[in-house]
Design a protein that fits this description.
64% helix, binds heme C, mainly alpha, Cytochrome Bc1 Complex, Chain D, domain 2
């Protein structure tokens, strides 16, 4: 069983090297690390979300909704301020990268 799991992991890492590298680079480049922590699990403020390890589709949807204004909570303004820096394609790459981080 472990062997199957690790083979699957290796296969996905081999298939997605560009996504992993781009995601990590984008995460720093676009200042995500400043508010969510270098690994996505140490937010700057106690009421900012820990994002590491969330489901990729969920992460992507939240970012798109924050960017479009469909999601608008008390803290959304802080996050919305950087969303003009990322394209929808970059949001997808970021979501896939953040989903791989340990919670
Ligand atoms: C200035 C601080 C700040 C920066 C920079 C920032 N965020 Fe956020 N982010 C927040 C806050 C605050 C929220 C919660 C918004 C709310 O309450 O609606 C949030 C929410 C999120 C969510 C939704 C989490 C959830 O559980 O619903 C994701 C995903 C996310 N940010 C990813 C990113 C990524 C990727 C970047 C870089 C492109 C980034 N953030 C940059 C502050 C920031």
């Amino acid at each position: 069983m472990m062997k199957v799991v690790s083979l699957a992991l290796v296969a996905s890492l081999v298939a997605l090297p560009a996504v992993a590298a781009d995601g990590a680079a984008l995460y720093k480049e676009k200042t995500c690390n400043a508010c969510h922590g270098p690994q996505g699990n140490k937010p700057l403020m106690p009421d900012y979300p820990k994002i590491a390890g969330q489901n990729a589709a969920y992460l992507e949807r939240q970012m798109l909704d924050i960017k479009s204004g469909a999601r608008n909570n008390a803290n959304t303004a802080a996050m919305k301020g950087v969303m003009h820096l990322v394209s929808d394609d970059e949001i997808k790459v970021l979501a896939e990268y953040i989903a791989t981080l340990a919670p």
